[in-house]
Write a structure and sequence with these properties.
Distance between the termini: 76 Å
Mean pLDDT: 87
Order of helices and strands: HEEEEHHHHHEHEEEEEEHEHE
Shape: elongated
Number of strands: 13
Largest sheet: 4 strands, antiparallel
Strand content: 15-25%
Structural class: alpha+beta
Radius of gyration: 36 Å
Low-confidence stretches: 381-385
Number of helices: 9
């Protein structure tokens, strides 16, 4: 009995040991579960790992390589905006447009912050989110900066993420309401800062009140141009004829492009919430008209700085004493004052300019993005960095 029991015991022990070893060997060879993109994951879990090319990021398997259209565009655009020089972008508007440096600096800093996220890796869904929800918030009021910088860096319009290409035909001039000589003041809340700067030598200029219409959402620059009379000759009054008056006979006209005779504004569309905030800051009868790229009709004061310039305007002729004595008898005949050492007396008002003629040139941004407040993709904070 003892020997039989011993044999059974030994046999059972060998079988049990074999089973344990087999189980152990089987357990060691079991492959971990491979998780797909978007699957829940846990760092350090050997039983379930993210598929090749994916990493566990905030509890989900994500592609952090940046090798996808969304992340490539965001990274290149953010770097381009960070490195962009606003003065280079606006070189064609030098002396014509003054931008808000604080807004531009803020946009550049935020773009740098977005770019730095890629050092740790950014999931594709986050890249898509930031294209639609973060980039449109860069430089509100000066949207030309990030859109033109991004276009220069990427060479493409992000239409797959909702970008809209504005039309040159979105803005048209309706009418010239006023055209007269006026004095420029020093208050930037009432007068364009660029014109105050230009007219530091004198404050006598020509002001046109212009009505224009934005028929669809638009982002870009609109430049208003005064025109000059050309081929002008002075014709004195005929002696002996009471009805004869001094006059200018001109043969042509030309559009003026010098900063003195143009006024450039930047327009971009706003969502209703932002629009109310901006309009609230512009209340008051003396405040300038708040111009936007939203559809509507607007009226803007367009100023020309018009110093004495006989080379450009024959009508700026400096009459001699005898001629002055003659033409001063005709109060309706407009002429420039004599050159003077008094800088505030050397302006010619509207003399030499074509009366009631203003035209515009339109320079759209490469694109604009819908406001995040109007984009369902931007609701909530679950995808924000």
């Amino acid at each position: 009995m003892t020997k039989g029991f011993f044999r059974v015991f030994v046999t059972f022990s060998l079988l049990f040991t074999g089973f344990i070893m087999a189980s152990s060997i089987s357990g060691c060879s079991r492959k971990p579960k491979i998780l797909k993109k978007g699957s829940r994951c846990r760092l350090g879990n050997k039983k379930a790992i993210c598929a090749k090319g994916l990493k566990c990021y905030k509890g989900h398997c994500e592609d952090l390589s940046g090798n996808n259209p969304d992340c490539k565009y965001l990274k290149n655009a953010a770097q381009g905006i960070t490195d962009a020089d606003p003065q280079v972008i606006l070189k064609k508007y030098k002396g014509k447009y003054v931008y808000d440096e604080a807004i531009i600096q803020s946009a550049s800093n935020e773009a740098a912050r977005i770019y730095n996220w890629f050092a740790k890796g950014l999931p594709q869904k986050h890249c898509k989110h930031h294209i639609m929800c973060s980039l449109p918030l860069l430089g509100i009021g000066e949207g030309w900066f990030w859109t033109r910088a991004a276009m220069n860096a990427t060479g493409s319009i992000p239409s797959q993420w909702g970008a809209v290409k504005p039309s040159k035909n979105a803005v048209r001039l309706v009418s010239v309401e006023e055209f007269k000589m006026e004095n420029m003041g020093d208050d930037p809340k009432m007068f364009p800062a660029i014109k105050i700067k230009q007219m530091r030598r004198h404050r006598v200029g020509c002001k046109a009140k212009v009505k224009f219409r934005v028929k669809e959402k638009f982002a870009g620059f609109v430049t208003f141009h005064f025109w000059a009379n050309t081929g002008c000759q002075y014709v004195p009054p005929e002696k002996g004829k009471k009805e004869s008056k001094p006059e200018w006979k001109c043969t042509g006209q030309k559009q003026l492009n010098h900063p003195y005779y143009t006024y450039t504004v930047y327009l971009q569309p706003y969502d209703q919430q932002t629009l109310k905030q901006f309009q609230g800051k512009k209340k008051g009868k003396k405040a300038k008209t708040f111009l936007t790229g939203n559809p509507g009709t607007y009226i803007v004061d367009v100023w020309a700085y018009n110093p004495i310039n006989e080379k450009l305007f024959a009508q700026h002729k400096q009459f001699d004493a005898k001629e002055l004595e003659e033409i001063e008898q005709y109060p309706d005949f407009k002429f420039c004052p004599k050159y003077s050492n008094q800088p505030f007396q050397d302006g010619c008002g509207c003399v030499g300019l074509v009366k009631d003629k203003i035209t515009i040139t339109v320079d759209p941004d490469p694109f604009f993005m819908p406001s995040p407040s109007e984009n369902p993709e931007c609701k909530g904070d679950e995808q924000k960095k």
